[in-house]
Each structure stands twice: as C-alpha cells, then as structure tokens.
Write the structure tokens for this entry.
Amino acid sequence: MEELEIKKMTTVERIQAMEALWDSLLNDDSDLQSPHWHQDILEGRKRQIENGKADFISIEKLKASRSPSHEKRFKMG
C-alpha cells in the first residue's frame, strides 16, 4: 500500500487498518524477538526509577514540547 493511498483514507479507515495490522501481528506465530538493546534500555529506565533519578512529565508538557512539524505529521484527521 502506498502512502498516497493511505492519505486518501478517512481517519476511521486508517485506524481500522492499524487495528487489522496489530491483530495480524498478535496472531502471528513467527518467532520475532525484540533486539537485545530494547532490554538494556528497559533495565536502565527501571534502575533510574528505583534510584529516584527518573524524570516524569505530564502529557500536557509532552504535547507542548513536540515540534510543529511533528504535530503536523502525526495529527489525526
């Protein structure tokens, strides 16, 4: 499927397509493993939380920190 075809879809159609893709991945019996570095990052973040050194921000701050080009690229609708 080409990007142009996706852009022609309505928001509902795009969400339904994403749901179908996720469902197909969930029901896939292939042995797809996450890269080892994923585990390294998760362990590092867990250590930061346990040591009280993790920084958390609100969803509002996260949204405000996103660049306008990022907002435009991922805006629904």
Observations:
- The chain has one domain: 3-28+36-74.
